[in-house]
Amino acid sequence: MFRNIGPRLEDGEVYRGGATAGSVFSTAQMPARELNSCYNRSARSWGYAMSFDRILVARILFTLMTAGWALLTVVADFNKTHATNPQWTPHARFHVVWQISSYVGLGLLAFALIWWPGPLAVERLYLVAAMGAVVYAAFFAALIAMPIYGGGAYDKNGYQPFNAPVPIFAKKWDANITAFSIQLLILVAGLLTVSGAFAG
């Protein structure tokens, strides 16, 4: 496979360059149609890599998505709204600390899968996407099931809904639902990118 085939050639012309410096071969031994096909594949591959590195973009998107559930939750929950909330029972506080600590450990694993050099880069990104999908799906499942277990999206001394910048669905938006919805959109964008859906 040649990285840069050069200008298109007709049968019988001599190509100089190739995979190794100074290599010479006659295209009489390679039909022009086959050579030009090789040229097209190389041009598409290298031109696309130069203009849009989808793997790098997907890594950045999945890093942002993972940070949403693995790091931002530490900032959001290790305070009086959750982990040290005086209105929570001690066992409830224990569970939230356990949950967030687990998120941090899994998040570090996800970051390694995203950025560690080596083979199976695309497959590792899909695995990271699956990890994020599990976290966000569990969040929305718990949200929908609140009437069953008597849960609430926020406490009186927790994060209160804020005025909606665009009051389309409601005049006030819940902080958790808004944050996780944005992260879910980033996850979808990452999946579309790594799958090549934006390649054109």
Report on the structure:
By secondary structure, this protein is mostly helical. It has two domains: 38 residues, no CATH class; 141 residues, no CATH class. It is 58% helix and 6% strand. The chain is built from seven helices and four strands, in the order ββααααααββα. The strands form two sheets. A two-stranded antiparallel ribbon has the order 1-2. Helix 5 packs antiparallel against helix 7. It is globular, with a radius of gyration of 26 Å. The two termini are 24 Å apart. The N terminus is likely disordered.
Measured by DSSP, the beta-strand proportion falls in: 5-15%
- Compressed to H and E, one letter per element, the order equals EEHHHHHHEEH
Spatial order of the strands forming the largest sheet: 1-2
The value of Rg in angstroms is 26 Å
Supply the number of helical segments: 7
- Tell me the overall shape: globular
- Major beta-sheet overview: 2 strands, antiparallel
Mean pLDDT: 79
Low-confidence regions:
1-28, 42-51
The structural domain count equals 2
Helix content: 55-70%
Task: Please summarize what this structure is.
This protein is mainly alpha-helical. Helix content is 58%, strand content 6%.
Secondary-structure blueprint:
Blueprint: E1 14-17, E2 23-26, H1 32-51, H2 54-70, H3 72-77, H4 90-115, H5 121-144, H6 146-149, E3 162-163, E4 172-173, H7 175-194
Antiparallel strand pairs: 1-2, 3-4
Helix pairs in contact: 2-4, 2-5, 2-7, 4-5, 5-7
Q: What are the key terms here?
A:
two-stranded antiparallel sheet, 4 strands, single chain, 2 domains, mainly alpha, globular, 200 residues
